[in-house]
Amino acid sequence: MEDDIREAQTGASAGSAEYGAKDIQVLEGLEAVRKRPGMYIGDQSSRGLHHLVYEVVDNAIDEALAGFCDKVDVVMHPDGSVSVKDNGRGIPTEYHEGMGKSAAEVVMTVLHAGGKFDKGAYQVSGGLHGVGVSVVNALSRWLELNIERDGGKYTQRYERGVPTTGLVRVCDSDGRGTEVRFMADDEIFSDMEYSADILKGRLRELAFLNPGVTITFEDRRAEIDGERPRTYHYEGGIRSFVEYLNRGKETAFKPPLYISGSKESTTVEVALQYNDTFIERVFAFANLINTIEGGTHVSGFRTALTRAINDEARRAKLLREKDPNFTGEDLKEGLTAVISIKLLEPQFEGQTKTKLGNGDVKGIVDSIVYEGMKIALEETPEMLKPICDKAIKARQAREAARKARDLVHRGNPMNKLDLPGKLADCSNRDPAESELYIVEGDSAGGSAKQGRDRSFQAILPLRGKILNVEKARLDKILSNDVVRSIVQVLGCGIGDSYNPSRLRYHKIFLMADADVDGAHIRTLLLTLFYRYMPQIIENGHLYVAQPPLFRVQEGKAVSYCYSVKDLKELTAGKDPKRVNIQRYKGLGEMNPGQLWETTMDPGNRIILRVRVEDAILADELFGILMGDAVEPRREFIENHAREVRNLDI
Residue 14's closest CA among 113, 122, 110? Predict the structure, then answer.
């Protein structure tokens, strides 16, 4: 997304308790926000909707970073509004000389007006876009502001960014803090449904990164059995974060290793632990922003980790003289790490502006982590051997995987003679105009081959069971016939050998039956793409096809329904004797014409693009659903069983 970046605050007097109207500086107005909301919040779909909540929460967390807030309450209300309340200092309420209105109204109605642009109020500011609560106000149908400070309680209401009342002192109060309750504007957003799971994931993340803060979340939209307000508070900070990520896994040592230090106004925290899986999980944050594309802080961490382990392995003679040093790749397997840095002026880059670019940060992180690792490994030598043993096995497996990749990739991937015989390729050679349907079973594959448009649609029927890649190394993964076929057909490589320029299709559809087995196959395929070809998801190439569940015929009129709810609405009030309803148990029950008309015709089909809204939540879900531990999976099923739709029993 082309998003603005939240500017970090600089200055020696940051964190001052003297926070008043003089600290509110005005940079520009709000005129363009409603006309071009995507410039300020990324998009107008679900992601942008949730970003409104993040902006308000980030303001509360900024107060926590400055040392004036330790409690944040987030509530989703039955009317669709959301409220965020903190116990910080409260937005200043006095008259702002330069603007001729209260400082609170300036904050709420002027873009980039706030305490983060002056040296006195905040030193480090969290959050990604930095557009502030004024943009939330502009993009809300209504917003109510309540402030407690200076012995009083104040309130003001806005509609689509325009104040409908003045800032009114309603009563005396010895409390302090700010509460913002807003209703997103349905004239702006195409999706008005908040996901409790997405919000809980971000709030949990913030609680881990701010160990002194208690964050509560309550969903009051519906009465759900067992759904109580959630409280997030982790005294262990990012150490608790790593323990959370490694739930249900065997770890090489306990507790997680924790390293911290400061240099040149940059604070570094790292927690890490190795587990018994074959997947690396490294989550990095800069000023609380999840830098999903990495950056200089991640590079510094990797360099330090590799150097320190090699030095100590040589000293402990776990690496012999003739043995080569471990590489960074050798040390990735089973690594879980959280990196959190706070700096004065972060520079973000990358496609989603979530890659840290500050050049000096690499050396700072490298130095702090290297010294911390050396001390920890010297003081606790029993940590070193399991790390080295795992790295040696990973090196051997990578060599086997390289040989397997060579077999998969031999020849020119654009040459039809090198592709699996089961593939029905398309005639178009332009990847941007070509589609691949990965179809469950030969029967459905046959219908898809007959029903498709051969000019741009290719069909790959799956034969056999795809491996659960969550539980296997890459060498074993590439020995699975189904995985080998998919990798060979896509042509872009897998894992570290992925090359986006060699991807043969820019639209890849997962098409499986609408039953439990189909859902399982789809989940196995999603795990493969998420773990070993995530760039395909990140670049928007992966989709889930949506075949209908029902064919409804009344006389000569034929309709298709994609859910039980759609069916009930369509057949309400109809004479059952005149309506013929066919339930499609599988794709193979549809003839080629029906499959084309409902699922493959670009003019009619319903498709879902696969996106990662929250990397940590996605990682957690794949680990729960596809990992070895049974208890977290049982707990997940029990918590979400009521949300399942279209389940055949």
Answer: 122
